[in-house]
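Here comes an entry:

___
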Amino acid sequence: MPNTADKKWLPLFVLAVALVAWAALFAAGAYFEIGVDSPRHDLRKPLIIMGAMLTFLTLWGIALWMRSRRK
């Protein structure tokens, strides 16, 4: 049976996975954009989106880790 600490981090893990899935959806949309002329498949756009999400989740994780150490 999971202990209390595992139950505390489970919703945050689920939220992080949902944010990554959401960013992946946006990244796919940016890659497969439907333009008026012709679709342009530029790999930089999804990399920027996923990099921004990775940066956000990293900073969020560091903030949560620092908060848990303080308590």
In short: Residues 35 and 45 are 14 Å apart (CA to CA). DSSP finds two helices and no strands in the chain. The mean pLDDT is 87. The radius of gyration is 17 Å.
